[in-house]
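pls design
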């Protein structure tokens, strides 16, 4: 055997050994635009970590939640990294289901995370998930349609104004709905919006003694308002529309207004994808004159299940995906307007970002306005904003979401849905021991 053959044999063996020793991380994530973009940029991570391979499981929001919850609760070990919200993080951390993220590296700069976001992901001073993007909710509207209708968006719009404006800019002949809102059933789909809506109407899920409040006038008023508005100014099939479906409608110019997550702003204003990119204005979530603007505060985060045997490698990926360096990578490839928003203080002090993203200031203002410790005008025994931060909310919220989605589909009435929601909530809260 000559020297060249020997060296080639050694190199091939080393290469094969390297592949054999490579760790494969299975990552469960949601099919939102920012996550899809992240998957397209992972060559950068692979170049820096050749000993780690990535396997993606990308799912629709409701399906992701169901599968991840089942796997983590049963310690199935199917995923090494999961995409979860700030609803799950503190609950699951206290259950011992998540790994504390103490291996993100000295240069990660955890102190740069926005305080409200970091606080929602920490238990006893330890970070249990790293935020990929954060959001509140706001109005995105077509400035050209408002101008055509002789309307001016107020600095602090009320629901009364929004309802009138939506009906006025609806043009069925041009396939333009005045308002797009979530209708797809799910605790994080339609109930995220409807809980925020009810908060802004002065309502609440439970009173101070955990008694369900679906039999109170605020829920009747807010749900009736929503159903009537969607009937008069919403798109066909609204009961099947979630975040992604409404995003597509708005980008296609088929929505005059859309009230949803602030993270959508970069997509509706991107001329590559949006036909109305240069016509979008932004305003704070409406209220009824009581000063409560929905109090929506959410983040999609990356966490490591306690059942994973690859926590060290998983934290390397999480550190890469949620770092300031990743933000700069996205900016270099896609432009500053498309970087993941709502997680780091430094981003909102970045002149390049402020210049490129007209939605930066409204997004930060909406997030700053959110106070999840006081989600309702009335006193409540829970925190959470557009969700209720108790373990039972995931199941109960989905049940109620199905009842309310059926109303939008014309299969039930507001009164019947509220009565069934009240019964379901009383039963669940009694079973769980909240009500004696």
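designed seq:
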């Amino acid at each position: 055997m000559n020297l060249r053959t020997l060296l080639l044999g050694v190199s091939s063996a080393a290469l094969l050994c390297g592949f054999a020793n490579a760790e494969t991380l299975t990552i469960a994530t949601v099919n939102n635009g920012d996550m899809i973009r992240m998957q397209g940029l992972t060559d950068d991570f692979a170049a820096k970590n050749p000993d780690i391979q990535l396997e993606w499981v990308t799912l629709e929001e409701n399906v992701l939640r169901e599968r991840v919850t089942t796997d983590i609760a049963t310690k199935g070990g199917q995923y090494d990294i999961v995409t979860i919200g700030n609803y799950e993080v503190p609950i699951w951390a206290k259950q011992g289901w998540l790994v504390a993220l103490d291996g993100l590296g000295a240069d990660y700069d955890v102190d740069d995370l926005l305080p409200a976001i970091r606080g929602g992901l920490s238990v006893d001073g330890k970070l249990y998930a790293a935020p990929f993007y954060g959001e509140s909710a706001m109005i995105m509207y077509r400035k050209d349609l408002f101008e055509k209708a002789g309307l001016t968006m107020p600095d602090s719009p009320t629901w009364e104004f929004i309802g009138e404006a939506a009906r006025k800019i609806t043009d069925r002949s041009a396939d333009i709905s005045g308002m797009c809102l979530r209708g797809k059933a799910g605790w994080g789909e339609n109930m995220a919006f409807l809980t925020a809506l009810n908060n802004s109407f002065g309502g609440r899920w439970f009173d101070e003694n955990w008694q369900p409040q679906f039999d109170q006038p605020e829920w009747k008023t807010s749900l009736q308002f929503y159903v009537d508005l969607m009937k008069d100014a919403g798109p066909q099939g609204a009961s099947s529309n979630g975040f992604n479906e409404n995003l597509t409608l708005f980008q296609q110019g088929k929505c005059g207004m859309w009230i949803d997550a602030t993270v959508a702003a970069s997509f509706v204003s991107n001329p590559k994808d949006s036909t109305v990119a240069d016509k979008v204005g932004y305003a704070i979530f409406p209220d009824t004159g009581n000063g409560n603007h929905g109090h929506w505060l959410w983040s999609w985060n990356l966490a490591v299940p306690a059942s994973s045997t690859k926590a060290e490698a998983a934290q390397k990926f999480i550190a890469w995906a949620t770092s300031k360096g990743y933000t700069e990578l996205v900016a270099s490839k896609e432009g500053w307007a498309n970087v993941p928003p709502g997680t780091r203080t430094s981003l909102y002090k970045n002149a390049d970002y402020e210049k490129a993203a007209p939605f930066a200031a409204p997004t930060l203002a909406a997030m700053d306005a959110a106070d999840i410790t006081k989600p309702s005008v009335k006193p409540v025994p829970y925190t959470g904003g557009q969700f209720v931060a108790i373990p039972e909310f995931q199941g109960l919220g989905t049940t109620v979401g199905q009842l309310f989605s059926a109303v939008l589909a014309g299969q039930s009435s507001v009164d019947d849905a509220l009565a069934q929601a009240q019964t379901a909530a009383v039963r669940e809260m009694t079973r769980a021991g909240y009500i004696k």
